[in-house]
Amino acid sequence: MEVTERAVAIADRVEAFVRDVVFPYERDPRARGHHGPADELVMEMRDKARAAGVLTPHIMPDGSHLTQRETAIVLIRSGLSPLGPLACNTMAPDEGNMYLLGHEGSAEQKARFLKPLVEGRARSAFLMTEPATEGGAGSDPSMMKTTCRQDGNHWVVNGRKRFITGYQGAAIGIVMAKSDDGACMFLIDLPDPAIRIDAVPDTIDSSMPGGHATLTIRDLRIPADQMLGQSGEGFKYAQIRLSPARLSHCMRWLGSCIRAQEIAIDYACKREAFGKTLIDHEGVGFMLAENKILIQQCALMIDWCAGVLDSGSLGTVESSMAKVSVSEALMKIADNCVQVMGGTGVTGDTIVEQVFREVRAFRIYDGPTEVHKWSLAKKIKRDWVKGQQA
């Protein structure tokens, strides 16, 4: 993966911090909640990251961002622990929200909403997904049911949201709703009495604070100057946010799978069975060899997709290809690590078990694998039709 000297230097500092400071926190009881690590723990780690100079390392002091290819190596290193992205402030949904606000927010909006996120002093939530079982849009913003209407110098929002990651405990929200013009986005302070938490379900993953809440929004009044851009532009902003966000998930969880591979190798080289170490049994050694191949393939796919984004393209097709190929490969890597370690692999004695759970959930984040395959199939058909017409 080709990277600049500045990215390598930042990534090296991030890796040293994660290995030396964050790894020990993996045993902290505050890191093991059903709805993610406790905010107290997150802020404690961020204080140490701030002191070490690795807090929000992908955003420069002048507010500029690393390129996507540079970001890749930094986020991969931060992901060596499931707690690393939280400590370094490179975790979803904050990382994606910072990306969106940095690109589309006004000066006033950046000062009020972006600054505390970059400083790691606040968490945020992205209120887009709706309850599909109630006729809502699910994760398809083009089918948005949540409405917004203008009332003087305010907008009034009503609707339901589901699987809103990090909402509980968040200080900043980005709300997506539909006006007569189309989709809209608003920036809000949280909590707000007009938004009720209906449930925070227990889920298979547990890496992001605040869980994945179900919400009811009733007559939420938002000042007009807190709209992001113009009425009807929300779908465009959703694409801006979600294209790199999908790729960032690939980066972070690749880091975790690299760590799981390290743990599995150490186990296989020390554990003896049937007269020799596990790694000397072909069934085990071949799984670790397969993992090494898949890790390299994931790194190459991420680098290619990041390069497309850096070229100025939104990279919707490319991000879908990366999301599918990388998420499926990471699932195989994590599964192999569990299998190599046998009973130990399904216990909390190491992070391997958690990585397996997190990567399984990752195959659903930002639209499941099948949605991306469907999108790619439509592109294949469009290209075929154009070819026939040529």
From TrEMBL:
It holds the Pfam family Acyl-CoA_dh_1. This is Acyl-CoA dehydrogenase. It comes from Sphingobium cyanobacteriorum. The lineage of its organism: Bacteria, Pseudomonadati, Pseudomonadota, Alphaproteobacteria, Sphingomonadales. Coiled coil: none annotated. Belongs to the acyl-CoA dehydrogenase family. Residues 132-201 form the Acyl-CoA oxidase/dehydrogenase middle domain. Its cofactor is FAD. Homodimer. The keyword Phosphoprotein does not apply.
